[in-house]
Amino acid sequence: MIKDMSGSKKAGDHPVADAAWPARGAGAARRKDGMGRAGVLLIVCLFTLPFMALLFGGRAGALAVWQNAAKLPVMGGGLLNVSRQSAAGADELFGGLLSPGSDRRACLSRYQSPHYYKHSPYAPSPHLLRKLRDYEARHSRCAPGTRPYAKSVDHLRSGGSSSKEDAECNYVVWIPYNGLGNRMLSLLSTFLYALLTDRVLLVHSTDDFTGLFCEPFPGANATWVLPPDFPVADMSWLGVGSNQSYGNLLDGKKIADDPAKATAQSVPPYVYLHLAHDLRRSDRLFYCNDDQLVLAKVNWLLVQNDFYFVPALYDMAEFEGELRRLFPAKESVAHLLGRYLFHPSNSVWGMITRYYHTYMAQAEERIGVQIRMFSWATIPVDDMYGQIMACSRQEHILPDVVDGNAAASSSHVHGGSKSKAILIASLQADYYDRIKSRYYEHAAKGGGMVGVFQPSHEERQIMGQRPHNQKALAEIYLLSFSDVLLTTGASTFGYMSSSLAGLRPTMLMIPEDGKVPEPPCVRAMSMEPCFHMMPDVECRGKAVNKEELSRHVKECEDVGKGIKWIKGIKLFD
């Protein structure tokens, strides 16, 4: 739950938060006319209220900010004039990545989010734009409610093999699994797989996933939600032991492993692909080229996965050339597809924008800090805080502070340094409390104003609850609006934030054997998320070409000696 810790601060008490970041230039205009006593009082308020905001904290009133949508027009005041939403020249379509003409009111974030991002380092390639437009046409033609979809479902329900009519529309159904960061990276990977294989992506939307995102594809009938009457029941219970998993079908000789022998009539009507952290060796054959040629003949593929598997696709001859044409810059995959595919629903977007405009909009620099303590790599809170501060000093992330008498004089100097908003995203409140106290008790060097904010602190990750996922999604996007990012290595939550932001973050290294790592952090070599598992499989007696994967894993291992994903340890965000 989000706690209102302010005590004296009332719900919707917006002016305190606003005054932490005075609008630049307004004071100078008034001084020319003579301000008198009222002006002096205004100056006193402007210099006093930032410290009140810091004292009461960024969590104070957060519940009111996120929930009190009705007061937004009054609360917003002139903030839109100084925030990125009014920035001139923002490209609402991300360089053609998005299609024009969608209903703006149905999905406010689709065309508003470009105004909040500062970094867009890669333009989509012409080949990617053509591929996306082709996909959108195919999705509109094959989506639920269309004749091809109805025929494919009828064949699936009857248990019969695929027909020539089914060849027009093949499908991949994504099944949500694990935390929100895992889900977003898995869904993004599955969408790319659909692009590469000319399939239509549909989502098995569980209750805790429903209402998080807008429909991503244009068209009145182009839903990505799988209807509830889909003939495969209890999809959320599919797992490594399911009879229809590709690994078990291979082990039982119920599907040909030779693409020359497999036909649309001989393969099952659907195959379940278990690609989650606990997949077995036979399941990993999915990453072999010949197996992809077999799976291409299956009308329905059902996928359950909890990590980012795009790097493995580059080492498959079936996809490698197309991937290089789609993404000439390899590190742009998650960045471009994330901005294309994910658009927070209006309810979540309201949470994001209310918090942003209340606490972050007027800062000249926004610093996002995402902290995750994994159960398999824990250290005391004091040690983790020390690691964060050591990293900040090493990479110059958080503003330095001055001690003693210097603080009194520098606290009145506001012109030398940028005003900065530090957003803390963590399940725990400890790090926010300590960082907030640091800037309350000490002035920042150079005299710039510093605000420290944390939207929520759930204390633990809660699976299966929509409100928890809504707040998590809001914080992923708030982090992605940062100018600078410090994230936790191996955290899918951090991966998604930096990919959307278009930033190479600084990443906290993972503790090993209960000790703070040295160095405390490293600069990421890429915006791309790490692949948390090597396929490590023999493809029909021939080893997979692991050159690209080995290079990728080496880059990810550089985040810290303690990263253990290759050993199959389960990771959450």
UniProtKB/TrEMBL annotation:
Belongs to the glycosyltransferase 37 family. The keyword Cell wall biogenesis/degradation applies. The chain crosses the membrane at residues 40-66. Its EC number is 2.4.1.-. One of its GO terms (biological process) is cell wall organization. GO terms for molecular function: galactoside 2-alpha-L-fucosyltransferase activity. Coiled coil: none annotated. This is Fucosyltransferase. Keywords: Cell wall biogenesis/degradation, Glycoprotein, Glycosyltransferase, Golgi apparatus, Membrane, Transferase, Transmembrane, Transmembrane helix. It is a single-pass type II membrane protein. It is found in: Golgi apparatus, Golgi stack membrane. InterPro entries: XG_FTase. May be involved in cell wall biosynthesis. The gene is LOC123169389. GO terms for cellular component: Golgi cisterna membrane. Signal peptide: none annotated. The keyword Glycosyltransferase applies.
